[in-house]
Amino acid sequence: MKFTILRYINLIIGAIVAAFALEEFLVPASILDGGIVGVSIIVSTLTHVSLSILTICFNLPFVLAGAKQLEKSFLPRTIVSMVVFAIFLEIFNRWHYDATYDELLATVFGGIILGFGVGLIIRSGGCLDGTETVAIMIARKTSLSVGQFVLGCNVVIYLTAGLLFGLDRALYSMLTYYITSRVVDYINTGLDQGKAVMIITNQGRHIAKDIYKTLGRTVTLMSGEGLLTGEKQVLYCVITRMELPMLRKIIEKDDYSAFMTITDVSEIVGHHIKSSEHKVMHHDADRR
User: Fold this and answer.
1) C-beta atoms surrounding 61 within 10 Å
2) Distance CA 23, CA 30 (A)
3) Residues 6+ apart with CB under 8 A from 40
4) Which residues lie closer than 8 Å to 124 by C-beta, 6 or more apart?
5) Maximum Cα–Cα distance for the chain, whole Å?
């Protein structure tokens, strides 16, 4: 219960920080965020409709679509994040503080602050942008990674921004996106690159099935032996940054006494098997 409350507190703080970065740094300098929020900024600039209303309206269909295929607790966490984000977008918009109009300062500090807010939300298992929700679903069924899909969407958005507001706005927006992604990367130990996870436990098969059921990822099981604890099972799998919060939740279950390490994967060579392509094996040496 205490962990759940702390998670929602982090979601709320992250949403407030992200809203502050947008309204006080990026929007006044006509610099875009990526994804659905970026689309909302473009539409708001052209139509003068409230950015807070547009982010809710544009994101809601994607979130509801993703809720059916993602973790059950994903929907309430994401809704809380987006509602708080929309409320504080309106509050900061009425504040009229505008930290700076200097494009470079807005790009750098806006990107850093936005990355901190978004990173905190993602680490707590929520989401601010419907693009990432769709990206997770597509990544599970295709060879595309979450990062590739999001990057493709953002390229289209920034090209549109360049046509509407000038090439310099598009370039500043791309720089902001890069800075934001690096900060998110730092907070969540990895952006959209692969993450190699090694789990040492006595409940290897149960955890493997839970990972398969929740994430659609198969694992490699190996035998190990602890110096003091005796025989152990070692699980190895490769996941994405967006799947880390769900994996942490699996490992944190009371009935699993497990030790987990997470490392970056610079390159994946060969076929990365997902649940739509293979079933869990039920012999002693499961293979990915």
Assistant:
1) 13
2) 10
3) 51, 54, 55, 58
4) 7, 8, 10, 11, 14, 77, 245
5) 67
**CA 6-193-134 angle, 5° bins:** 70
- What whole-number distance in Å separates Cα of residue 22 and Cα of residue 113? 9
Q: Is residue 124 a contact partner of residue 245, using CB atoms and an 8 Å limit?
A: yes
pLDDT per residue as tens digits for the range 199-219: 998 888 889 998 888 888 889
Distance CA 36, CA 137 (A): 16
CA atoms within a 13 Å half-sphere pointing along the CA-CB vector of 201: 24
Q: Label each residue of the chain as H, E or C.
A: CHHHHHHHHHHHHHHHHHHHHHHHHHHHHCCCCCHHHHHHHHHHHHHCCCHHHHHHHHHHHHHHHHHCCCCCCHHHHHHHHHHHHHHHHHHHHHHCCCCCCCHHHHHHHHHHHHHHHHHHHHHCCCCCCHHHHHHHHHHHHCCCCHHHHHHHHHHHHHHHHHHHHCHHHHHHHHHHHHHHHHHHHHHCCCCCCEEEEEEEECCHHHHHHHHHHHHCCCCEEEEEEECCCEEEEEEEEEEEHHHHHHHHHHHCCCCCCEEEEEEEECCCCCCCCCCCCCCCCCCCCCCC
Instruction: Name the token pair of 48.
Output: 């003068």
CB 128 within 8 A of CB 77: no
pLDDT tens digits for 143-158?
Answer: 666 667 777 888 888 8
Give the pTM: 0.66
